Amino acid sequence: MAGLEVLYHSVRHDITTPQDAIMCFVHWELLQADYRCLGIGDRLKTTDVKSELLPENWNSSKELYTLRYQSEDEKNEILIKAVLVDTSLIINMLTSRSEQVANLTINLTEHIDTEHLRDFGRVYKKMAQLKNLVKLVIQPTVSKRTDSTGSSRKSRRKSSGSQFDQDAHPSSARGSPRNSDPIRSNTPNPFAAGGADLDPFGGCEGGMIVDPLHSGFPKAGFDPAQGTQGGLPPGSVPPGARFDPFAPVGRNRPGPDPDHLPPPGYEDNI
Questions:
Q1: 126 with 32: CB under 8 angstroms?
Q2: From first to last of its 270 residues, what are the pLDDT tens digits of the chain?
Q3: Domains in the chain and their CATH numbers?
Q4: Which residues form the PI31 proteasome regulator C-terminal domain (predicted)?
Q5: Are 84 and 45 in contact (CB under 8 A)?
Q6: What is the 3-state secondary structure (H, E, C) of 216-241?
Q7: DSSP bridge partners of 67
Q8: Model-level pTM greater than 0.90?
């Protein structure tokens, strides 16, 4: 963790509480992510200057820390607010461009040795674990920063033609017709599993909209707006309205088999 010890020694006389030590660690992690500190407070100032050092009065309040950072390419800014609650420090990080928020709660007694606040070699109890925890709040915001070519990582993933994205969403990724069925294709595709559940209209013989005819796809020739035999008159169902039949639909449907499941005792007298 090169650079952390130098940073800590530059502010060790200002560190009087365990939350001070945590904020120093968070500041160092942001430096590793190519961010520089602009100053304290949640508003821009004309005197803001990017620096690797913690600004003056950065820990004037031991219960609330507010620091602003900017990326080296000046394409993104981050606002950090850390609040002390009992023996924990709640860290909130907001990106100015995407307005994405990440937060993390760190137990101070678990990670900081309060008796050796000015001894860098002993102040952090579990430095590797603390580093992983702090990355949880930094990575979600830093990963959204655009690269030098002006395209985000998400855009690069889309342009690469991810196999999973194309197969899991066949209708949107490939522009294929709704009745196409990648699961029934001649070549099995393991990434297409579950694709039917992602289409609410049942484009892959599934989905959340249930076909009242239980046929997978609505059958041609049945229009509830034209009325039903022995039931609703024409015009009773508005065109395009969802209609759940309350009786068998269609003509010349076979009736029940009288020999099918006779009532109990039916053959007692035989």
A1: no
A2: 678 999 999 999 999 999 999 999 999 999 999 999 999 998 888 878 899 999 999 999 999 999 999 999 888 999 999 999 999 999 999 988 778 888 999 999 999 999 999 999 999 999 999 999 998 888 876 765 544 434 444 444 444 444 434 444 444 444 444 444 443 444 455 555 555 555 555 555 555 555 454 444 444 555 666 666 556 677 667 776 766 666 665 555 556 666 667 777 766 665
A3: 4-142 (3.40.1000.30), 163-217 (no CATH)
A4: 166-248
A5: no
A6: CCCCCCCCHHHCCCCCCCCCCCCCCC
A7: 40, 80
A8: no
Find where tokens 């430095």 sit: 127
